[in-house]
Amino acid sequence: MTYAVKELFKTLQGEGAQAGRAAVFCRFAGCNLWSGREEDRERSICQFCDTDFIGTDGIGGGKFAHAAMLCAAIEKTWGPETRGRFVVFTGGEPLLQLDAALIEAVHAAGFQIAVETNGTIEAPAGLDWICVSPKAGSELKQRYGNELKLVYPQVGADPDQFTDLAFDHHWLQPMDGPRRQENTALIAAYCLDNPPWRLSLQTHKMIGIP
Ligand SMILES: C[S@@+](CC[C@H](N)C(=O)[O-])C[C@H]1O[C@@H](n2cnc3c(N)ncnc32)[C@H](O)[C@@H]1O
Ligand SMILES: Nc1nc2[nH]cc(C(=O)O)c2c(=O)[nH]1
Ligand code: SF4
Ligand SMILES: [Mg+2]
Fold first, then answer.
1. Which residue from 47, 53, 120, 176 could staple onto 92, CB 3.0 to 4.6 Å apart?
2. pTM surpassing 0.95?
3. Helix/strand/coil for 102
4. pLDDT per position as a tens digit, 181-199
5. Could you confirm whether domain 3-207 is CATH 3.30.479.30?
6. What are the residue ranges spanned by the domains of the chain?
7. Is residue 116 within 8 Å of residue 139, measured between CB atoms?
8. Which of 8, 28, 204, 205 to mutate to test the pocket of ligand 2 (most atoms within 8 A of CB)?
9. Hey, whose CA ends up nearest to atom 10 of ligand 2?
10. pLDDT tens-digit series, residues 114-127
């Protein structure tokens, strides 16, 4: 299996319950809910994406012909430190590419494995942390995990629809864009009245790291 990776970099996880933790981010190219092209955004299922996931031309990106090769690049990006090894597979949609061979290889290298997924594809076995971020207009197939992180507001994806799903954490994350500040205030009000839900801020954007 050849993996197409947009970018590979080390930073702090900015969002959700693992926020503040050092991680290698492996951003796979491609998504099933948007082509990634601006001219397609308005007619795509997911219209608010904040990420460039087209191609393999980002920092540390490329095509990796085997799991062992991508794993070696992840290890190199992390560095020699053996404590707290953590890799976040994201994208684009990581579950289009993440497979058992890659999971086995990075586990053998001592990493805990997290995914950031839109939930339209069932997660493979063996992941250590599953973050699902449902998108209005798509079918949610991955209905359990460690955290559910709903970008808010979305017409057609009310928090109510997800409150009872089997996740340890339920987050509302302000939709970034021209209305980010209003969206944040809406979430603050919502969480005050709906205690299962908590506010997730994109802290990496606040401090200017990737
Ligand atoms: C770029 S996505 C990639 C992973 C996967 N495709 C997904 O949607 O979960 C990573 C995270 O960023 C969130 N996100 C994307 N665009 C956003 C925006 N404009 N504002 C806030 N969060 C956003 C997604 O919901 C997801 O939780
Ligand atoms: N620092 C940082 N944290 C993140 N958490 C989820 C991200 C993503 O794009 O999947 C992300 C990201 O792009 N950067
Ligand atoms: S599903 Fe995720 S990667 Fe795909 S367009 Fe939406 S936010 Fe971006
Ligand atoms: Mg991001």
1. 53
2. yes
3. helix
4. 999 999 999 999 999 999 9
5. no
6. 3-207
7. no
8. 204
9. 90
10. 999 999 999 999 99
